[in-house]
Design brief:
Layout (H helix, E strand, L loop, with lengths): L1 E4 L2 E4 L10 H5 L2 E9 L2 E2 L2 H14 L8 H14 L5 E8 L17 E8 L5 H6 L1 E7 L14 H12 L4 E6 L2 E5 L3 E6 L2 E4 L10 H12 L4 E3 L4 H5 L3 E6 L3 E8 L2 E2 L7 H18 L5
Parallel strand pairs: 7-8, 7-14, 11-12
Antiparallel strand pairs: 1-2, 1-6, 3-4, 3-5, 5-6, 8-9, 10-11, 10-13, 13-14, 14-15
């Protein structure tokens, strides 16, 4: 499997970075995960725009133009054994000659790209939904930046996994924020709602597409604060992310959500999502 690291395309198992790389020492970097279908990246421009927002947020100059990123990513996609892929790219501030919290003055960023097989939700998960549990959102206050500092997310997700759940649904000050690795939507009486886009959540690419599709199809939708009580009394709950797409939550803290099966609004949205994805990734020039 071919990876890209700092100007070189090489086998993934041969890729090496310095132990003084600031991504390794301080989690000082940004990343993106881009779904690829039929060797075509889905919503690539949106992912690169979010990467730019994160790099701006951590004061790290973007090492490549959008065109250069596209060329690098297309090479890794082409060299992969899989038609459907999860494309990973990461930019760190690079390696200095010493460990120091302050930014180094003259180092080159570390750029890494690799691709693995895209693992989509199973047929059973689509049919029956997944379980989730609530947890206190104890992460930092810049969750809008997609940085590699993910230990809090990892611990929250592991707590959910240990409880037999697919995701941890996070609450801060009694309000829904997001999942440990996803955005969350609530449906009540046919109205779709999701939390405000601010520093408390990551602006998910799939989240934004769902909101766009809801607007196009005139589905009632609200972007606002959502209380814990609303979360627990929802008719439907969904996870959204680039790899999970639109995935219903049918059990929360061991209690059924709505009827305990994926609801009609989720099924309709997934159909719209899939149609949008197919249109974007099925061009004749693939």
């Amino acid at each position: 499997m071919t990876a890209y690291l700092n100007g070189q395309f090489l086998p993934l198992e041969e890729a090496r970075i310095s132990p003084l790389d600031r991504g390794f020492l301080f989690a000082d970097g940004a990343y993106e995960v881009i779904p690829v279908y039929r060797r075509r990246p889905f919503l690539l421009d949106s992912h690169l725009a979010r990467l730019q927002r994160t790099l701006d947020g951590i004061a790290l100059p973007n090492p490549h133009t959008a065109g250069e990123w596209n060329e690098l990513l297309q090479r890794v996609i082409a060299d992969s054994a899989f038609a459907d892929q999860a494309l990973y790219l990461q930019v760190t501030r690079g390696a200095d000659g010493k460990r120091d919290h302050a930014f180094p003055s003259a180092v080159s960023p570390t750029v890494f790209i690799c691709s693995t097989a895209l693992v989509a939700p199973s047929a059973a998960q689509r049919e029956f939904g997944v379980a989730a549990r609530r947890a206190v959102d104890n992460r930092w206050l810049r969750c809008d930046l997609k940085t590699v500092a993910l230990l809090a997310n990892v611990l929250l997700r592991q707590q959910a996994s240990d409880a037999g759940c697919a995701e941890a649904i996070l609450l801060r000050d009694g309000l829904l924020t997001e999942g440990s690795s996803s955005n969350v939507f609530v449906v009540k009486d046919g109205v779709l709602a999701t939390p405000l886009r601010d520093h408390r959540i990551l602006a998910g690419i799939t989240r934004d597409l769902v909101l766009e599709l809801a607007a196009q199809q005139r589905m009632p939708c609200e972007v606002r604060d959502i209380s814990d009580a609303e979360l627990r009394s929802a008719d439907e709950l969904w996870l959204t992310s680039s790899t999970r797409e639109v995935l219903p939550i049918t059990s929360l803290d061991g209690q059924p959500v709505g009827t305990g099966r994926p609801g009609p609004v989720a099924r309709q949205m997934y159909d719209w999502y899939r149609a949008s994805r197919e249109q974007a990734t099925s061009s004749a020039d693939v």
